[in-house]
Amino acid sequence: MATQRDVARAAGVSLAVVSAVVNGTSHTRMKESTRTRVLQAMQQLGYQPNQTARSLRLNQTDMIAMILNKLDNPVYGPLRHGVYEAAAEHGATVLLGDAETMRSGSQFLTRLLSQGTVDGILIRGEGLLDDDVMTELSSHPKPILILEHALDHPWIDVDDRRAGEIATRFLVNLRHRHIVFVGGSGYLSQQRYLGYQQAMDAAGLTPAPHLATGFGEQAGADGLRQAMQAATAPTAIVVNNIMSAVGVLAAARDLGITIPDQLSVVGIHDVDLMRHLRPAVTAVRMPMYQLGRAGVEALYDLIAGRPSAGGVITDPEPELVVRDSATALTRIRD
Amino acid sequence: MATQRDVARAAGVSLAVVSAVVNGTSHTRMKESTRTRVLQAMQQLGYQPNQTARSLRLNQTDMIAMILNKLDNPVYGPLRHGVYEAAAEHGATVLLGDAETMRSGSQFLTRLLSQGTVDGILIRGEGLLDDDVMTELSSHPKPILILEHALDHPWIDVDDRRAGEIATRFLVNLRHRHIVFVGGSGYLSQQRYLGYQQAMDAAGLTPAPHLATGFGEQAGADGLRQAMQAATAPTAIVVNNIMSAVGVLAAARDLGITIPDQLSVVGIHDVDLMRHLRPAVTAVRMPMYQLGRAGVEALYDLIAGRPSAGGVITDPEPELVVRDSATALTRIRD
DNA sequence: CCTTGTTGACGTAACGTTAATTCAAAATAG
DNA sequence: CTATTTTGAATTAACGTTACGTCAACAAGG
Q: What is the C-alpha separation between B326 and B188, in angstroms, rounded?
């Protein structure tokens, strides 16, 4: 690996000039002819700057970490995309971490944060950040931005409450009266339930209690079973988590309930998979790509010592994607 | 951030001793009492070694990259797990990259490889490595290991041919005679088709041509439609890609074909989702976790300059997970 | 008592950058 | 023609580690 010293020797100039050519520094000036001579030498020797040496000198690694709790959840696809793109615009690489590596005792975050491996960290907080972890995080020098959701840390969210409201209002407009909310535990689910409540209230309907069965396919199946045991069975449900929707569909099949004829289903978070299930699932698309971009920008605000522009992303708004799993109620039952 | 110099000052020893305590170097010896004094100083100052400085000095970053082509394909879950675990055992962090960042022109790999950001790279090759990329990669100094599949680079694979054979033989044993293989393009699909052929031949059946429609849900749907247009419709299909299986199920529903009564389906690669579809999909589980572990070990062989122990992973073998999407053919049609 | 070996440490030169400082030569001003 | 400014560059001190070489003090052996 050729170094700046080699280039300097080959071009017959000093180290400083090479560095100036590489960085476009204005402090050290040079003739255009010298510049091209250096450039040629770089080309010939195949010079590549050593990122490690740069990092040491500048105390900045041009790398940020993103920690997610279940990396293969497809909702993270667009989020990752947004983060990668925005990071690239800042000249940074993204170190993707799974929450499994993140238990309080683990060395992973400590290495990242204290050992100067990354310039900052994005964490998707849901179900991840207990008090232990939070205090450990707070004691580190590098900035941390929480994606959905933190109380006393800089954070940035998508509008989960609104998503719950949109899903519910859609079902209300389809003349459903008995709508239940199948959710999980945690803040996000709570927010979406709040939106559900709001839409129910606005329609003069009484919200059913929050059926908190957790996340994922099994949770969806459990939720549906519980919902169906109620005195008056619901004609529609709002499913908190998109992977839970898969479980809802499966449980419905197992219970002999046809969707959407006997039960309408709307999911929150839209992923490609929903298009390919049968029935194709009507879902609320969340601006996850924008969340990723905004997260990186806010993190770089923090890194630069600027006040962070956190908050709830309202542009674009959550958007309903209508497919086949929800239909108008024709037979009114009450 | 406290440095070794601060610790040395606090403990009243030289830099060399602190470094020796940190690394357990045997060259520089010290009294046990000195060691504990240094340790205490480290504790008090909250000393954390600076990874960047270490990297520069040692010319090794303790970081490896893994590049995948579609990061949210759930088949990568166990692969990632294996890679993370094995990497952790080597004291390394994993930098996860998506292939989108990898087009020939992109700076991503160049930065990683030439700028000394990582010690080595694992790449899942399928559909990714055209000749351009390969020659670009070869010109770099850090070792590269290809997961499924390369010709002139160190590589390591799971037994795709065997998976095709296992899936097909299972259907043959269920008395199916008209079995088609819905595949994609590329080496992996080809290998699995070879296994299909082999099982068909062994049963004295004539293999159908390889229906190569690509990857993902849409490909599965397309494949099924094509298969059903044949003169004699198949009673069973082997689906190359697990996400394609979702598409097959959807297309079957759309075409009014019930699975498994009218059509048996076996997928290659098992993911959790398959359990939760209806019907639950019978699939061949591939040892992806082991592929990840073995990949890291082979990469570290390369990094250490040892001959790499690549090849096909045969332990464990691909394993059939029987669920509901395939059933015995009762009405023999020919 | 001198020699040799061992213990316990210290000094320092890298690793490849960046940027502050310095400085000679050329250009311009008075 | 001298004084001053500008141009074009060179020297060098960090950044935080690691590991090589050195060395004093003490112990053991002859």
A: 23
Per CB-CB distance under 8 Å, the chain B contacts of A141 are: 1
Q: How confident is the model at residue A334 (pLDDT cuts 50, 70, 90)?
A: very low
The Cα–Cα gap between B292 and B290 comes to 5
In this complex, the answer to whether residue A17 has its CB under 7 A from any atom of chain D, a nucleic strand, is yes
Find chain B residues with C-beta within 8 A of A100's C-beta.
81, 84
C27 C1' to A6 CA distance, Å: 33
Question: How far in angstroms lies nucleotide D14's C1' from the CA of residue A7?
Answer: 22
In whole angstroms, C7 C1' to B30 CA is: 8
Rg from Cα positions in chain B: 26
Q: Return the beta strands (E) in A49-140 as ranges.
A: 63-68, 93-98, 120-124
The whole-model pTM stands at: 0.91
List CB contacts of B267: < 8 A, sequence separation 6 or more: B167, B238, B239, B241, B242, B244, B245, B274, B281, B282, B283, B284, B325
**Is A141 in a helix, a strand, or coil?**
coil
Contact B278 A250 (CB under 8 A): yes
B15 touches strand C (CB under 7 A): yes
Over residues A72-91, the pLDDT tens digits come to 888 999 999 999 999 999 99
Other C-beta atoms lying within 10 Å of the C-beta of residue B278 = 19
Per the CB < 8 Å rule, is B52 touching A49? no
pLDDT tens for B95-154 read 988 877 665 555 677 677 778 889 999 988 776 666 677 777 777 778 999 998 777 788
Cis peptide before A141 (omega within 30 of 0): no
Strand D-proximal residues of A, range 40-79, CB below 7 A, are 53, 56-57, 59
B203, two tokens: 């049963």
Cβ–Cβ under 8 Å, residues A280 and A264: no
